[in-house]
Amino acid sequence: MSLNEFSLIEHYFSAIGQAEGVVLGVGDDGALLDIPAGQHLVVSVDTLVAGVHFPLDAAPDDIARRALRVNLSDLAAMGATPRWFTLALTLPAADRGWLEVFSRALAMDAGQFGCALVGGDTTAGPLGISIQLMGLVPAGRALTRSGARAGDHVFVTGTLGEGAAALQLFEPGLKLTGTVREHLRKRFYQPTPRLQEGVKLRGLASAALDVSDGLLADLGHIAEQSALGAELQLSALPLAPWLKKLAHAETVQGWALSGGDDYELCFTVPPANLAGIEGMITDGELVASCIGRMTARVGVRCIDDSGELVHVDRAGYRHF
Ligand code: ADP
Ligand code: MG
């Protein structure tokens, strides 16, 4: 790396976020991080490629926020608290204007979510951003995908389908009002990682993940890794009222079941902990809905109000 490139990193990336536990950050061959006794380090990485995960003409601040937040969502799903991250940036050119806007948005989000940039890599090539997030969780308390039992209740936080609906933004010719457009744009570029929810679910949820590939596919991951199946009550899917007005009921249901990019938490709750979760929901501490049960019979099935099986053929977003 040339001195010029190093001064660029120094200028834009050396002071991002809160530096708690950072013994040595940006500028050496590696970062030194202090892991407190009794804590596990949770590590997760996600790559966003221009033209694949965001449109080629996306604004740099939008890209920065989406890149950080989809990673934070993975930590939320583990019940972890974010601490540090590294950034591998592939840039077509060292465009100062672009870097200024990108790094400022990244700094704001890193500050808001309490994590510090401790290193990275900068290379020339087609635009791509890889962020590796590191966080802490008390040893033995992480939420995983494999702990569900038959009979556990299936919950999801927030509302579903907006991530998929947001892809409509990129369809030319679709008529959307300004408010809806802005809401979808925000939902796509600034998803809310459910970090507080993840922490609250420690000790109560038997399994959890974030909905990134679509509810059916993601619940399928919990089911598979727990060697179970699941039954989803279609009428219980949490849908925003404004979303229901955007398209036919079937389309909206498709977005909610198979669309992906929602970054809500899907989690399972053993009957013994149900009252605890419901209490938090009633008290307004947790926004979540019960959408089904885990079953001993494998496979994820959707049922309507009369208990009839409904065939849903889309299996969620697959990258390849
Ligand atoms: P090396 O060649 O030893 O891997 P680099 O020249 O790639 O080191 O990077 C120099 C320093 O700058 C390292 O501390 C690295 O972590 C940091 N760095 C490089 N790119 C970035 C970036 N995009 N964001 C934050 N830190 C970065
Ligand atoms: Mg390097």
Fraction of residues in β-strands: 25-35%
User: Roughly what is the average pLDDT, rounded to an integer?
Assistant: 92
- Please tell me how large the radius of gyration is: 20 Å
Alpha-carbon distance between the two ends: 33 Å
Strand order of the largest sheet: 8-10-7-11-9-12-13
Task: List the SSEs and their pairings.
Layout: H1 3-13, E1 22-24, E2 32-33, E3 39-49, H2 60-77, E4 81-91, H3 96-113, E5 116-124, E6 128-138, E7 153-157, H4 162-166, H5 178-189, H6 195-201, E8 207-210, H7 215-225, E9 229-233, H8 241-244, H9 249-259, E10 265-269, H10 274-282, E11 288-295, E12 299-303, E13 309-310
Parallel strand pairs: 4-5, 9-12
Antiparallel strand pairs: 1-2, 3-6, 4-6, 7-10, 7-11, 8-10, 9-11, 12-13
